[in-house]
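INFO worker-7 received task bundle
INFO bundle size: 2
INFO processing item 0
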Amino acid sequence: MALGQLPISAAAQRARTTRAPREIVQDLLKDTMWIDTPAPPIDSVAPDVIAEPLDLNGDGVPELEVLAVDHLCHSPSNCPVWIYRRAGARYERLLDAGNIAMLKAQQSFTHGYRDIMTTRYGGIMNSGLTLYKFDGREYRQSACFSERDYFYDRHRVLRELKKPRITRVLCEPDA
């Protein structure tokens, strides 16, 4: 689901989603941590890098949530996601969220930008949550959590918790 939105029809969602600008795809191809090395030609990658507009700082000019999809995403649930903003005639990367399942804007702001919570699925038992805050130039990890939805009872039967159990954990270092 798009950042900070309620569910909408698939047709409406496709209307909001476009191919990422070529400049962003070129920037992403410089960083081969997320894609096969050597990087494939831009024309083979571009169709599978999409962008959704979102306004994180309330200025009416949308930033872009950029997602790798289809053959660029090698997971059924967690895919590479970035946030870019327009800076004059070019784009600046504000966040490399890594392989995540979801990105959600928070109600809180830091340095004029909404804080962001990402979810990374880790299997049926738990998910990893990361809170990012804007430092004036880019988003940085602020806090990390583990979210458990299920547990094994004393008979080793898998049970769903009535309310997810969220525990603060140490963050992995930013890359």
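INFO item 0 finished
INFO processing item 1
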Amino acid sequence: MNLNQRSIQHVLAAKQVTSLVHFTPMQNLDSIVKNNLLSRDQCKRVGIKPTTTDRFRYDGLLDYISVSLSFPNDRMFYLKQKDLGYSWAILLLSPKVITSQPSLFFSSNAASAKKANPLDGSGTADALSAMFGSRRNNSPSHGLGDCFPVDPQAEIMVKQTIAKQYIQSIIFRSMTDYRNWIRAGGAPLGLKIIIDDTYFGQRNRLALNNNH
């Protein structure tokens, strides 16, 4: 582990980040569980045709996988659920991914025309830290815990492949979705399964729950 990776590890520990998050149509789960989570370009290289959710990929980072810190990009995920009509699953991933794989850090959406922060797109620990706000802001302004970025659309781009060993669990919205996946031939292969619709809703609801 090099100095930057150790610094990234320190930021993750200081912010108590326990999971990264990736949402995907349920149709992709079998391939992910068997073949790892792959970028769009890497899928082409190995002959896998995933169900994609972004026709244009305005960020241009086709050899990267988008993940979020602690909770999905709820604005984007809401639109995907509304417009595409798929059944969805959410992967919780070990934060160790970004200390082992080349990654780029964005304090807002990576496809934004104007960068929110001059560090955006960097792979440094400072860029990761910037996702949580300035150092002078000692307490999170969003009403959530330290492990959440300031902007719900903040994202991390992980290069090419996330090995299945980094999948902590698979979250389904309902037991019906899980059973449908199993009936279609899905196999958890020892992975932890969670049924919880919280991750399919709005992040600010977590803040409301924390205040009651």
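INFO item 1 finished
INFO post-check item 1: The beta strands are 20-25, 37-38, 64-69, 88-93, 103-106, 155-159, 161-162, 167-172, 192-195.
INFO post-check item 1: The first strand starts at residue 20 and ends at 25.
INFO worker-7 idle
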